[in-house]
Amino acid sequence: MQSRPVEIACDESGFTGTNMLDPEFELITHVGLSLDQETAAAYVALLHQRFRRYSATEYKSGQLFRNRLAVEWLLGTLSGRATVHLTDKTYFTVTRLVDLLVGEPSYAAGTSLALDLRPVARTLHHTGPVVFGPARWRDFLAAFVGMMRHKRYRGIDGPYVAHFLKTLDDLRSERLDPILGELREARPQLFHVLTELQDDRSPVPPPLEPLIPALFETARLWTADGAAVAILHDEQSALTHHRVTRVQELLRRTSPIPEPLLGLTMLDSRTDPRIQLADLLAGVARHLATAELRHRGNPYLTSLLRPYLAATSLWADQPSWHRLTGSFVRR
């Protein structure tokens, strides 16, 4: 008989909708926290009392991060009780471009179940700005994002599609032409993907929703030992019933039990202390990881964050990943 499922409280930090290239929010973090409601409430109360940062509704990570002692306390307090999945949103955009146009456009794309094209994406991500210049490369990615953001309103023959195809065709370089050539030849698949995405229940994953693979990786971490989990998540419009069902299907493929993810319930972070703590940790993790990505990290605080970090995080910058985790990028 299967034991009672473990409740995992989840929240994110850095979500900017489909604006994947916002320079102020380079990362999105997704936290999974295993803590009962009573203990979480005691931790939140202690934060208010000990560090004297009061809010009318809830304690936010921006307040917390101004107090280094509070950050150290939080990271020490939740050690062993939480996981943090990191996503570099620019790199996510590149992986999505490759996965949808060259690979198999399924919900496994963008997760640790589909790594075959990850070296191609890393090559594009690292070499594109060098070969074409940062501004021109960013314009190319912006054309892809614009096409995917406006697919419903302009149709697959609209100006955003034409702009993306022209921008892609204008990129020529001996170093990258084998990859870019594949993308240029993928026009039939592009139109197939755009057609499929007209239906919210499509088997093609949403192109600009990093929370979907992040949710999968978080749930997979917590079910790896054969436990069944029920996820309690802060209210998030990206996590529709259809998308959560797809995540459940993926988890069944790798889990030793029939139903590893029993369901996802939306909660209000203002009323649930577990979600509040997940939100605080997500915000702190995003601040610290962004600092490392920008070569401004604090080695001690980074060392406190290290035990939380998921190896399946979507990260391409090897020096900062080594500082964050002590290991090298493999995904």
Q: How is this structure best summarized?
A:
The protein is an alpha/beta fold. The protein contains 15 helices and five strands.
Structure description:
With 331 residues, the chain is an alpha/beta fold. It folds into two domains: 6-89 and 208-325, Nucleotidyltransferase, domain 5, CATH 3.30.420; 90-196, no CATH class. It is built from 15 helices and five strands. It has helices spanning 37-51, 61-64, 68-77, 89-101, 118-132, 134-149, 151-154, 159-170, 177-184, 187-196, 211-223, 241-254, 273-293, 299-305, 318-325, and strands at 6-13, 27-33, 82-88, 229-234, 261-267. Strands 3-2-1-4-5 form a five-stranded mixed β-sheet, with helices on both faces. Helix 4 packs across helix 5 (118-132), helix 6 runs antiparallel to helix 8 (159-170) and helix 11 packs across helix 12 (241-254).
Write the layout of secondary structure elements.
Elements: E1 6-13, E2 27-33, H1 37-51, H2 61-64, H3 68-77, E3 82-88, H4 89-101, H5 118-132, H6 134-149, H7 151-154, H8 159-170, H9 177-184, H10 187-196, H11 211-223, E4 229-234, H12 241-254, E5 261-267, H13 273-293, H14 299-305, H15 318-325
Parallel strand pairs: 1-4, 4-5
Antiparallel strand pairs: 1-2, 2-3
Main attributes of the structure:
331 residues, 15 helices, 5 strands, alpha/beta, five-stranded mixed β-sheet, 2 domains, Nucleotidyltransferase, domain 5
